Amino acid sequence: MKLLGKVALLAACVLVIAATLIVLRLKDVPLAVLAVYGPLLVALAAGLLWPGAFGRRRVAVLLGVPAGLATLGLYFAVVFYVTDTPVLLGLGAVTALVTALVTVRRTPAGPSRSRRVFLLGGAGVALGALGVASVGWARDRRRDRLAPAARARAAALHAPGRRQRVTDGAVRVFPLHLGDTVVTFGQFHGGLDDWVGVEGYVRTLLDKTQLTVPVYAYLIDHPRHGVLMVDAGITWEQAHDHDGYYNHNAMVSRLLSQRDEYRQAPEQDLRVRLGRLGYHPDDVATVFLTHVHDDHAGGLRHLPTATVVLDRRDWDQGVRYGYSFERVEANLRFPRYDSGAYGTFPDSQDYFGDGSVILLPTPGHSPGHQCVLLRMDDGSVLFMGDTLYTLRHLAVDEVRQLTLGGADTANQLDAARRVQGLLADPTVAPLFAHETTPYRSVVDEVFATGRPDPAGFAALRRHLDGVLTPDWRLR
């Protein structure tokens, strides 16, 4: 039984070590470093369980000290953030004080014990005092880091070229490029090359070939329903104070995200983009969220007065970060998709009841992903979210992003086919959240004033037809 217990304990240690290595790989620690660090940890665990002739003390010195130093080094190199300082000092204080108490109880009385207890207790008190003092220092360091960004945003907001809001009764749509995200090439294009499900995620740990792709949200100025948005993009903090942003709920959020995954220039801040178009964040009445992923939901922190409309399945089951939704949780609305069939979709939600905005369930990329169809004066636009990343991804049998596998992949492919069916109508134009192809330039030009005319819709369709055949193959 004792042997079985040790084997079980070693197996548990190996699982913890494996999880640690995965996290470090997510943080871009080189495989060569992990190839040394992992076996060192396993050897330490095995040596402590079966020390043999070496003895546990020698194992602890020969393997534990290098493993401990390596762990500290990796932590400070890839995980440490300034707000950790008070916590680390507090842990040091507790460790010193507990060691002092243990020394009192287990060491014979004498000058040596008194000296050790005095030094350990003094160190504990000093570290505790430093920990308390460092709370304000850490807060000020983060504030000082963000202060230049606030000045840069103000300068960008008031730079020449700011527009006046036009209210002439027309529906307007403005693409908002709100920064960029760094993704692996396979995540973006590897769905037909075994980047599927668990295997796909494992490959993201091994193959770090990366792409930088844009993050788009869309502003809609509607004469009847006010100022609307589809998605909200990212925030300056996600791009420039990443660890601070993802440290609000638990360190696990910071551990499982990449420090350099987002990039944003001052003029790409949502508040700046809105302001330069003549709007204020408080003008936004409704945000239609295609799904809860943080590159689509981060900007909700700047829209606290907006009603946020998203699929209940995504809220309940999707991968979301609570801090992004903190200011809008009281304003959530969940469509029931009870308006009947719409085109190739068996279920839909006519959100305002007048056919102006139709919500279409497209699960697969996330449990409750949805697309949004908006009727404009001279055509309609279909906001794709991440159902498909780019125009070329409409050729889903030739270009495919990573999918989650099983039923999720089947759902996503079904959603893609239904989208193709809607786009058979030449008056419907797709708008993507991560468009990297030349179609992006055509969209920016056609929507420069927010109001594409029939010629603009025709230009979008011409480009689509030049890239894709009628049966959705690449030309």
Short overview:
Residues 214-434 form the Metallo-beta-lactamase domain. This protein has helices at 2-26, 31-49, 56-78, 85-106, 111-157, 185-189, 197-206, 236-240, 242-245, 251-255, 270-276, 294-297, 312-317, 322-325, 406-423, 439-446, 454-467, and strands spanning 172-184, 210-222, 226-230, 262-263, 284-288, 307-309, 332-333, 349-350, 357-361, 370-375, 380-383, 428-431.
SSE map:
Layout: H1 2-26, H2 31-49, H3 56-78, H4 85-106, H5 111-157, E1 172-184, H6 185-189, H7 197-206, E2 210-222, E3 226-230, H8 236-240, H9 242-245, H10 251-255, E4 262-263, H11 270-276, E5 284-288, H12 294-297, E6 307-309, H13 312-317, H14 322-325, E7 332-333, E8 349-350, E9 357-361, E10 370-375, E11 380-383, H15 406-423, E12 428-431, H16 439-446, H17 454-467
Domain Metallo-beta-lactamase: 214-434
Keywords: Hydrolase, Membrane, Metal-binding, Transmembrane, Transmembrane helix, Zinc
Cofactor: Zn(2+)
